[in-house]
Amino acid sequence: MNIYPVLRKALHALPPETAHQLTITALKHGMIPPAKAVKHEKLVVDCLGLQFPNPVGLAAGFDKNAESADGLLKQGFGFVELGTVTPLPQPGNAKPRIFRLPEDDAVINRYGFNSEGLHIFVGNLAKRKEKGIVGANIGKNRDSMDAAHDYARGLEAVYPFVDYITINISSPNTVGLRDLQQKNALAELAASIENMRKIMIEKTGKRIPLLYKIAPDISEALRHDIVKTVFDYQIDGLILTNTTLERPDSLQNLHKEEKGGLSGKPLFERSTRVLSDIYRISEGKIPLIGVGGIASAEDAYRKIKAGASLIQLYTALIYQGTQLVQDINNGLLALMERDGIKAVQALTGSDHKKSHSPAHHTS
């Protein structure tokens, strides 16, 4: 039985950040009952040198300080991404900094990498007891003059404790951060990060996959540059996409003009176009994680067909609760049964295999 509709009424009566922190605390202390994970061989995904029990992951931004990894894994996710964490503690932007747009199934946030820093984050990771795939999403401090140094520090600190690491260069809420996506800046950053990974491989004897999280608001030319950098610097995959600064005309809620990144349903088409285009440009040779506006099994199915090997949720959980994880996995099984698909992996990029018409060459 899904009790979230009742809980949602109470949670949404509170300011969003208060409700968020209450949920983290409840997960941390085991106050939210574990969910029965949907287990089926059709849902298993081999990607990034890891075996994911299902393709549905939690996006970064929910648990910024790695407080509730175990509680989250018990909700049936195939993997959980924690962070964004910055090297030094920082408060982020002034409150209020997160706004629900329920009429639009959306959220606007301008958190600004609020983080307790690597020391707390790594300490929390070290206490984990639950098995499961966990990624760390790392960022730079707002006032740092040396982004490459910050990312190298983050990678070094989290490396022994996680299964993959995401380099966040696409949050719209840290001034100048998205400039790191530009061709020369990205190549310079990728070279520095790859050097640190080589040091960590030497130290630990294991090669942890590195992914870069990209914005949806990037030009066609920049998409080509990013794909080239991925190949040049042995980047293992991309997460597509972060939140958008664009505001669709369709938005209805009174908070629609608030500054920050827009996530949820209005982001779905834009983020899926970028995902599809990167898959096409890379000829399907780069593992992609699709995120942005997924709120149903049908949405997940579309992302996977557009080129995603795995998908991530966040905003839809605010409106539907973690029951959505089971609903999507069960729904994917039903959709695959309908279409005669033997495994979710076989779906990845299938839109592109059906047709090479310009309809799939979006910009």
Structural write-up:
This protein is an alpha/beta fold. It has one domain (4-360): Aldolase class I (TIM Barrel, Alpha-Beta Barrel), CATH 3.20.20.70. It is built from twelve helices and 13 strands. The strands form three sheets. Strands 3-4-7-8-9-10-12-13 form an eight-stranded parallel barrel, surrounded by four helices. Strands 5-6-11 form a three-stranded antiparallel beta sheet, with no helix packed on it. Strands 1-2 form a two-stranded antiparallel ribbon. α5 (147-158) runs parallel beside α6, α8 runs parallel beside α9 and α9 packs across α11. The chain is globular, with a radius of gyration of 19 Å.
Low-confidence stretches: 357-363
Task: Specify the CATH architecture.
Answer: Alpha-Beta Barrel
Structural domains: how many: 1
Work out the strand percent. 15-25%
Distance between the termini: 43 Å
Give the topology string: H per helix, E per strand: HHEEEHEEEHEHEHEHEEHEHEHHH
Overall outline: globular
Q: Provide the CATH topology.
A: TIM Barrel
Fourth-level CATH superfamily: Aldolase class I
Instruction: Kindly provide the radius of gyration, computed on alpha-carbon positions and rounded to a whole number of angstroms.
Output: 19 Å
Tell me the strand order in the biggest sheet.
3-4-7-8-9-10-12-13
Query: Helical residue percent?
Result: 25-40%
Average pLDDT level: 95
Structural class: alpha/beta
For the record, the CATH class is Alpha Beta
Strand segment tally:
13
